[in-house]
Amino acid sequence: MTKRTILISGASSGFGALTARELAQAGHVVYAGMRETAGRNAKQVEAARAFAAENKVDLRCIELDVVKDESVRQAVDAILNETGGIDVLVHNAGHMTLGPAEAFTPEQCADIYDVNVLGTQRLNRAVLPGMRARRSGLVVWVSSSSARGGVPPLLGPYFAAKAAMDSLAVAYAGELARWGVETCIVVPGVYTSGTNHFAHAALPADQAVAEEYAAGPYKGVAEQCRRELEALIPPGADAKDVARTIAAVVDAPRGARPFRTHMDPANDGCAIVNAMADRMREELLRRIGLADLLQAQK
Question: Which of 74, 86, 123, 185 has the fewest CB neighbours in a 10 Å radius?
């Protein structure tokens, strides 16, 4: 196993925290990026430190707010000063919404897009120059089955942002290949336990419109979606499976890593749609003489 320096965004809880621990236990130097390390996430920082001490692993928490340029720059600079380079960047930070799309203000939608999409762009612009200079590196994007699978109602702004992030990941894959930087997209489905997605979901600011939906023809739809989605998930589904999958991707040999991996306990069809979309991408690149962009150059 090659020891790597890894930065994970949104690692205070859920997939991010689980992945940070999984990768640290695999022997890597892991930086768990999170906001407010001295404030609301202080307990998460202490929990990570306790985990690192108990398991004798190298798990370090670092202040990282993906919507702030200065926070991203300071975090990346600190890691570079301590380690000399970032080998793996895991885009995990995200924010869910819950409510009718119409009830979210444009400003709220912009905020959701800022976290889920522009946050990845800020991190890429800070980390990729070093990877390109070394002609090596791995970028892992934590997408969502909602980007292309069956789409339940009342999660629209979040779904739109994750679809945009997924499209950006695909575009980056081709543009980084000749620099020797690999791209992997991990696609979790619905997990109603083990994450804080629903608990921390943004609610619509326009409560008047939200109430019209809740009291009108969509009365009870939110509760029905949650109930029925939970019923679709097999009893053994575990959010840790996402962390284990990311760790397996990181530890796979260079050149053998899968472009896209799904973990979809509800089987919402995303894997089928993505398989076709990814196949069309491969065929088009071959037809225009750019098949080499399908795999990072060694």
Answer: 74
Given 9, 31, 162, 213, the catalytic residue: 162
CATH number of 5-294: 3.40.50.720
If residue 284 lies in a helix (H) or strand (E), which one and from where to where? helix 270-287
Please state, in angstroms and rounded to a whole number, the distance separating the CA atoms of residues 24 and 157: 33
Q: Is 3 designated active site? A: no
pLDDT tens for each residue of the chain, 298 residues long: 789 999 999 999 999 999 999 999 999 999 999 999 999 999 999 999 999 999 999 999 999 999 999 999 999 999 999 999 999 999 999 999 999 999 999 999 999 999 999 999 999 999 999 999 999 999 999 999 989 887 889 999 999 999 999 999 999 999 999 999 999 999 999 876 656 556 679 999 999 999 999 999 999 998 998 888 888 888 888 899 999 999 999 999 999 999 999 998 888 899 999 999 999 999 999 999 999 999 999 8
DSSP-derived 3-state class of residue 88: strand
The helix/strand/coil state of 137 is coil
For the chain, give every domain's residue range: 5-294
The Cβ of residue 232 has, within 10 Å, a number of other Cβ atoms equal to: 14
For the entire predicted model, the pTM comes to 0.95
